[in-house]
Write a structure and sequence with these properties.
About 25% of the residues lie in helices and about 25% in strands. With about 300 residues, the protein is an alpha/beta fold.
């Protein structure tokens, strides 16, 4: 099967790129192995995307974007991307199912939750250890859970968890939070949330399921064990760029390097959204990246004729 454009990833950047490219009369395929929406598929509320309806959720927004793509003829596939190879007419894209031909590629693989390496973390992953409150909060109804981290994502998910858990304990290594002050106030005012600042997680314990955590007071050095039913870890995100190591330029943190037009060092291959090096990673900037990448993919193909 031959396409004008293959997009790897179906978050806001990939979906927007698909919409713009299909409206520009390109034959487009979006490859996504983990479901539509990327990171916004786990967002309980979208408040900072212009024009989004009140109480709009991430999955709602992702589904509306997908529907728009479908209306303009974008194809979707759940294949897993493996690699690509340049050809005289474009690229061969290798997936776990077949090899596809395309004139251009847009990489929009986004980011994934970062594993920290706490003692017991890997052993109890999926058995009380989680990285996504929206995904797993329902499993902790009436239970006590810990949130590890102090950024906006950790605070937002702590508030979300209070709808399910009876108590949420935030473990934070600093003595103050950084980021959205409105969000901080909501957390401070919530009676279901306990904050342990200047505190570091040392170990997650349990046999088959999380049963407790060991934490260290960074002021006194004292370590104590706290009964706990679940642990949500928010240590940031890593760009999904491992499959491009050696073929595309990445910065020190692993993000793909592009110019302002979303072009990589390989002609006809673009990158958009959270996967690329930039200063702000939000839904609105991802969609902007996707539109710019699609525009330049169309331009690239036009110049081939």
């Amino acid at each position: 099967m031959t396409y004008d454009l293959i997009i790897i990833g179906s978050g806001p950047a990939g979906l927007t790129a698909g919409l713009y490219a299909a409206r520009g009369s390109l034959k487009v395929l979006i490859i996504e192995k983990a479901g539509i929406g990327g990171q916004i598929a786990t967002a309980r509320e979208i408040e900072n995307y212009p024009g989004a309806p009140a109480n709009s959720t991430g999955p709602d927004l992702a589904e509306r974007m997908r529907q728009q793509c479908v209306e303009f003829g974008v194809e979707f596939s759940t294949r897993t991307y493996l690699s690509n190879q340049e050809t005289p007419g474009g690229f061969l894209v290798q997936t776990d199912a077949e090899t596809l031909e395309t004139k251009t590629i847009i990489i929009a693989t986004g980011k994934a939750s970062k594993s920290v390496g706490y003692k017991g973390e890997q052993e109890l992953r999926g058995m009380g250890v989680s990285y996504c409150a929206v995904c797993d909060a329902n499993f902790f109804k009436g239970l006590r859970v810990a949130v590890i981290g102090g950024d906006d994502a950790a605070l937002e998910d702590s508030l979300y968890l209070t709808k399910f858990a009876k108590e949420v304990v935030i473990i934070h290594q600093q003595d103050t939070f950084k980021g959205d002050e409105v969000l901080q106030k909501k957390v401070m005012d919530c009676k279901q949330i306990e904050i342990l600042d200047n505190t570091q997680l040392e170990e997650i314990k349990g046999s088959g399921m999380v049963a407790s955590i060991c934490v260290k007071d960074l002021k006194t050095g004292k370590i104590c064990e706290i009964p706990m039913d679940g642990v949500f870890i928010f240590a940031g995100l890593n760009p999904n760029t491992e499959m491009f190591v050696g073929s595309l330029q990445r910065n020190a943190k692993g993000y793909l390097v592009t110019d302002a037009e979303m072009r990589t060092s390989i002609p006809g291959l673009f990158a958009a959204g959270d996967v690329r090096e930039k200063s702000l990673r939000q839904v609105v900037t991802a969609t902007a990246d996707g539109a710019i990448a699609a525009f330049n993919a169309i331009k690239f193909i036009d110049e081939l004729v």
